[in-house]
Amino acid sequence: MSSTFESLHLVDRYLAAWNERDDAHRAQLIAATFTADARYVDPLAASEGHAGIHAMIGAVQAKFPAHVFARRGAADRHGDYLRFSWSLAPASGAAIAGGTDFATLAPDGRFASVTGFLDVLPTRPRGSTIGLPDGESLFYRDTGGDGPPVVFVHGWALSSSMWQYQEHALRAAGLRCVAYDRRGHGRSSPAASGYALDTLADDLAAVLAHLDLRGATLIGHSLGCAEVLRYVARHGSSRVARIALLAPTTPVLRQLPDNPEGLPDAAFAALWATWAHDFPGWAADNEPPFFVPETSAAMRSWLVSELLRTHVDVAIATQRAVVFSDLRPDLAAIDRPTLILHGDRDVSAPLALGQRTAAGITGARLEIYPGAPHGLFVTHVDRVNHDLLAFIRG
């Protein structure tokens, strides 16, 4: 795979496999497109190997017997990664679904893995980009509408896609949902100027200003909570009505003379060295406590794949940004109603962090979820959505 033409040819062959109704021909296309141990994952399905992918495509065809997959636009290749968009439509008529797939190329030019991201048409959120003063760009989705705006700030090393199950529920309730990819994550550009927490907070300010949002509810998860708090401390709360923090990694993580409960710098240095050596191995080892036993294998696989789409250098830089930030002074600047949702089985951000964050914000309300881990946005999705909607409605 050494040219754009060859990359496009591979994408077209991939989509031809999705459209092929003859089992034997489909098997040939899959073998020509995927390595023998290739993996496919999206929010609704996961499969591995030629036989697994063959069966998955057959199941989709059975559900949409008169529909055709088609490529939208050109493929975008960066090294061994390929990005392309597609639509699903009846033989004559408008598209009913679409999405963007991210593929990893094997040395022989076939797909080693494909991660799919789905949008449902015609009510899918509008996707666009925001240009930033330093030349970078942020991808965002905006459902539009006249309802109160909600802005989602995603967790460490993930992307705005993590919020799709909250967006679905809140959009159905009439709210305007905006979610963006942090710089260096998802479909936003990498940041030559770095990932300081102040910079990340300024990016949130750019989103709010670009869309001229007023009376917004800011919802953050994990690292995203630090961005929300720093945004209010730096820019004020004139555009903000409410704040919701899920599993915050605030107010301070390091061990300091006045924070003996924190981790020593050596522990973080060892963690980052592990990531730099084998980030996928670390992700696999630490996947179980992020979920609950009932979480489906497909959901687990999707979120781990989402994590591993983030470059390890970005993963380290963004965690360094929050580790070396003390947000205790920021808490005093929060002057809007604040809800904190935190699980008592959170290994990534122990409940004590949520308790300290709540204690530092005047009037903050802490809701403790028994048995909930760091991934409560998918493991406890119904309760999270109910609590968020009740909070937003006041």
Automatic annotation (TrEMBL):
Q: Which InterPro entries match?
A: AB_hydrolase (IPR050471), AB_hydrolase_1 (IPR000073), AB_hydrolase_fold (IPR029058), NTF2-like_dom_sf (IPR032710)
* Pfam families from the UniProt entry: Abhydrolase_1 (PF00561)
- In this protein, which residues make up the domain named AB hydrolase-1? 148-380
Q: Which domain of life is it from?
A: Bacteria
Q: What is this protein called?
A: Pimeloyl-ACP methyl ester carboxylesterase
The source organism is Nannocystis exedens
